[in-house]
Amino acid sequence: MANVNDMESVSLFDGDLLTDIDYSKGKCNLNEYGISPANPGEDLCMRPLCTDDFDKDFIELLSQLTKVGDITREKFLKRFHGMLANEGTYYIIVVENLKLRKLVACGSLIVEQKFIHDTAVRGRIEDIVVDDSIRGQRIGKLIVETLLLLSEKLGCYKTSLECRDPLLPFYSKFGFVAESQQNHLCKRFFH
C-alpha cells in the first residue's frame, strides 16, 4: 500500500474553472484592491481543495467557524472522495499561504440539481471562513465573489447563503437580499 504522503494530490474540481471566471461581472471591484484569484496576496494562492489539504490545517481552519469534531485523515479522505464522486456538485475553494504551507481561508459552493425551472441547478454558498491572521485583506470578498460568479457560470438560476445578522451588510455588497415572504427554518439533530 502506498504511503499517503507519496501519493499525488487530487483536486476536488478542475482549477481552470477559477481562472476562466469573468470578474468584471462581479459586484465588488476586486481590481481596485489589487487582488484576484491569480494573485490573492503576497505568498497566497487560491485553488480548489486538494487531498493533501488535511496536512495544511484545513480542519483547524474550519474550526474557526463552527464545531468540527475529531476528523482523522481517513475520515477527511473518505468525505473528499465522496464529494469528488458527485462531480459537478461540490466546489470548495481554499487560499493557501505558500510560505507556511497552511490554509488561511476557504468557502464552499454546493450545486443542487432540481426538477423546477426546467431542470435547473441552484447554488448554496457555505462555510466561508478567513483565518484571523489575514482578516482585513479582502480575502473573504474574493472567495464570495468567486463562488457567486462560479455559480452563475455553472448555470445556477439562484444562489443563496445563510448568515448571522451582523454579516448582512457584508453579504449585501454582493447583491444578496432577504426574500421577504420566506423564512429560513432549521431542525438540528446534532449540536
Task: Put the structure in a nutshell.
The protein is of the alpha+beta class. 24% of the residues lie in helices and 21% in strands.
> What would you report as the Rg, rounded to the nearest angstrom?
17 Å
Strand/helix succession = HEHHEEHEHEH
Task: Indicate the overall shape.
Answer: globular
Largest sheet: 5 strands, mixed
Total E-strand runs: 5
Low-confidence parts: 1-6
- Main structural class: alpha+beta
Helix content range: 10-25%
Q: Report the end-to-end length measured between terminal Cα atoms.
A: 37 Å
The chain-level mean pLDDT equals 90
In terms of DSSP E residues, the strand content is 15-25%
Helical segment count: 6
Instruction: Give the strand order, joined by hyphens, for the main sheet.
Output: 1-2-3-4-5
Protein name: Glucosamine 6-phosphate N-acetyltransferase
Pathway: Nucleotide-sugar biosynthesis; UDP-N-acetyl-alpha-D-glucosamine biosynthesis; N-acetyl-alpha-D-glucosamine 1-phosphate from alpha-D-glucosamine 6-phosphate (route I): step 1/2
Domain N-acetyltransferase: 44-191
Keywords: Acyltransferase, Transferase
Protein traits:
single chain, 191 residues, alpha+beta, 5 strands, globular, disordered N terminus, Acyl_CoA_acyltransferase
Task: Please tell me about this protein's structure.
Residues 44-191 form the N-acetyltransferase domain. InterPro entries: Acyl_CoA_acyltransferase, GNAT_dom, GNPNAT1-like. One of its GO terms (molecular function) is glucosamine 6-phosphate N-acetyltransferase activity. It comes from Exaiptasia diaphana. The chain is globular and about 45 Å long. It contains six helices and five strands; from the N terminus they run H-E-H-H-E-E-H-E-H-E-H. It has helices at 16-19, 58-62, 73-85, 116-119, 139-153, 168-172; strands at 44-48, 90-97, 102-113, 121-130, 156-161. The chain has 191 residues and is α+β, with helices and mostly antiparallel strands. The chain has a five-stranded mixed beta sheet with strand order 1-2-3-4-5. Residues 1-6 have low confidence and may be disordered.
